[in-house]
Design brief:
By secondary structure, the chain is mainly alpha-helical. It is about 85% helix and about 0% strand.
């Protein structure tokens, strides 16, 4: 699959993840009066799980190895790097603007832009690396 197509599908996955992330955080904060920082952790796990499913099925179909559980765990760990940037931007927005405290989905949008590149690169080159590349890395590790 071409890089352009992968980027397009990854972006579509990101939109899906954003809708899930923003919807859950908004509901938890506005309807259940949850702390917006804690609510974001729950919404992140739901969004990361959803984007993993989408990316596994469409963006990087047939790539990556190992069990689904192990791949999901690696994906969530990899997404944590992007999430660190994402959450930092979100937290800064929540702390800085009363409007974002009331409508935390705005902060989710700012954070999503911050973490997108890190998430794509870790997905493409670590989580869903084609089997031939994975074997070359393992063989290279043993050769040293």
């Amino acid at each position: 699959m071409s890089l352009r197509r992968q980027l397009g599908l990854f972006a579509l996955s990101g939109v899906l993840g954003f809708v899930i992330d923003a919807g859950i955080v908004q509901m938890l904060v506005r309807e259940l009066a949850m702390n917006p920082y804690l609510a974001r952790l729950f919404s992140f796990l739901a969004a990361a799980s959803s984007t993993w499913l989408f990316n596994r099925r469409y963006t990087f179909a047939g790539q990556g190895g190992g069990s689904k559980r192990r791949q999901w765990l690696r994906y969530v760990i990899a997404m944590a790097g992007g999430f660190a940037l994402n959450y930092g931007a979100y937290a800064l927005c929540v702390a800085s603007w009363p409007l974002v405290r009331q409508w935390p989905a705005i902060g989710v949008a700012a954070g999503s832009v911050a973490g997108a590149l890190v998430n794509f690169l870790s997905s493409k080159y670590w989580i869903f690396r084609p089997p031939a590349q994975a074997a070359a890395v393992v063989e290279g590790d043993h050769a040293q």
